[in-house]
Amino acid sequence: MNAYSNAPRPGAPATTPSFAGATTPGAATVTGVRHPGRRYLANIRLLSLQTAKMRLLWVVVGFVFFTLTAFVRIGQLGFVSQTPDHGAAGDALVPPRAEITDRNGVPLARAFPAYSLWFNPKALGAKGQPLVKTPEEVARALVQIFPEEDYGEMLAKLKAGNPTYLHRRVLPEQANKIFALGEPALEFPRETQRFYPQGSLAAHVLGYVEEDGRGKLGMEEALDARLTDPAHRAEPVALSIDARAQGAMEDELSRGMLETHAKGAAGIILDVDTGEVIALASLPSFDPNRPDLARNALVFNRASNQVYELGSTFKPFTVASAIDAGVITDMAVRYPATPLKIDKFTIHDSHAFGASLNVPEALIHSSNIVTAQIADKLGGKRLRDTMIALGMNARPMIELPAKGFPIWPKGEWPRLRTMTIGFGHGIAVTPLHLAAGYAALVNGGIWRPTTLYKVDPAHAPAGRRVFQASTSARMRQLLRLIVVDGTGRKAEASGFRVGGKTGSAEIAGGHGAGYKNKTAIIATFAAAFPMDHPRYVVIAMLDEPKATELTSGQRTAAWNTAPIVSRVVARTGPLLGVTPDAKRDVDVSDLTPLVANGDGE
Amino acid sequence: MMVTAHRLRSIGWMATLVVCVALVMILAFRVNALRSQVHMSQARIIALKQETMYLETEFETRANQQQLKTWNDVEFGYVAPIASQYLDNERQLASYAKPVEPDAPAPIRVASADDAVVAAAAFPAMVSPMAGQPMSTPASGETSAAADHAAPKLTKVAAVVGLAGLGARLGTVRHAGHAADKAKPTKLAAKKPAAKTKSAKAGPVKTGGKSPSKAFAGRLVQSKVRVASADPHHRALPSARSGTPLIKLALRDVKTNK
Fold it and tell me: Which of residues 31-70 of B touch A (CB under 8 A)?
């Protein structure tokens, strides 16, 4: 190295003192013939020059390589760098199953790291005893901590000596108690499980998640693919449900159920302009946090799956259809109200209302006889077309997997069938059908599919026109009149301009056994508010309510479900953006003179 | 010599190289240290976010609709607002400001910042805590004429002090034990600080540098101590004593006026 110390300097060789005589390699070769020592030196010089060039080349290549590497690295950092949102750090926050929220972002279902109880028999070594104490003692202690577990089952699991879950979803305090048992074989792996912070609220809408991670029942099942899709798991799914309205609805329904000893209850709040379901309740309910207990009759959804003959609540459809078809042109026309004999069958009213009634009075008193006559004049075909337009011949339009098929009379409707369907018997639909129908009745006549997804009001589905807008306006007056003067008085909520119709239908026996059990009824109240500009439809239904002191010894809808609607409207109205106003109401002044107040007529 | 120069130069280059390598290594270490710090912070952020989610879920669970309903049934009894609690427009609001006519029914007072408290807080020095009588120097028992003389001046100053400190005082929560102590100041106990009051009153006036209003304020503050004299806590913390006794007195005043 020392001998060629000046060799890598390309500009210097000619002037270097040690090679003063040899100016160029060519000269060195020529002169080298006569002086071998010089030639030797020239060779060395040539070699060292080549070496120098090579080294220079290497240095340049090295610099270029480093520069390129640096630029590539800078580019990599600049364009495809790992930021917390995309990298491994971001993934840790993405739940394995997307969250479900209500329309205001209140979480209804979320992935939650909870403890489980896992039995690991190898905890004390492969050959050691799995448990310190006897399996009997441990099983007894565990059953004390989890009273709902079966002692025999627990003991069998502990004795079998296979690794298995002993209990899912262990609370921290229970985990502490188990820890105090001092058994190393009892472990608490922390697992992400589905958790419902609101408990049994909207249980039928949400459904539950089974232990294998599949959604069952409700939106958990309907949205299973979307909730587990890795691309969308981070974004929560917003439902149309409002947790506060849902809570109020469930609360009032359960109160009504307790007051009347009813078997069950269902309730719906529906946005009339978008078809969004704001609340959908079915009682008795279940706790989706305990999927292991959810396999029973309680998971049956009365609001969207069970079909009922909803009785008098169908009368407004008949009247609206008749107004729309031009069958009813004058509200003052009177119809005889004496029991009507058709083909060995007599249509009665709940009690006599005098010799004759006009249309507003027939609705106010809920007269079967007059509505049957209107249906008869309208004709089976037109009534059937209206019912089809209202979607009464198909399963309800909803995302839930549990959708009941209506009992829909096939073929042409004979005269008697037309008349009974006119007052809501001989056809059985779900309460959700009824809600969608009432929405069309009051919103200007447009039927829209009901949905559990949040809908932008500007992009509401177009729907289909069932009634003319003028018919809808008339029906708003009539429905309001029922609450002001008629059977629905107890549904009035001060300032909310409630309008609606009662329905107390006797329950038919199975297989066409007829209406033998006269005390078993389905009490329904279908309402909308505020009637001057309807925003929401409210349906409340009680299954077999009994007459109690709290309902003044009555079991009809006017006494049990109408007050439920009144309280629900009063509680949810302000939350849903309806301001109570005592100085505003729908104008019914053209109808009030036609209604005889009191017991006259 | 030449070789030494070359060698020196090459040594120099080598040294530069070594320094550069060392610097690069330091930089690399620092970058890696920072990166691991970032990773640790990320891990911590994730842990905290999960913790937040955990606590949020717990909160949501404890405050779910059914639980709130139960609490409302048992504890609060809130009901939904009714139609008469809503205002349509400014006109309706303005109608509440109409002067009361001769045979009009008594106006309904709504819950708000009660100006009676403010008004009462403006006259703390004038009321004896024992008798509820307006007197400026109750302990020394001087003539009421002097008190009357002092009153107009005090009113304004006290009003300023009272209003300014009202917000702060209303925001302060006092321990119940202190209130109990304050509720039973004997006359003997009241006499001792009364002397103090005099000296305090004289002090700022003598110095003359302070404005009379400040002097009065000082007197005001000192005279308030009289009420709190049984409470050693207040004497130990002179900065705190301009607070509660005033409002205490104000409340007393309201009570006695009733």
Answer: 39, 42-43, 45-46, 49-50, 53-54, 57, 60-61, 64-66, 68-69
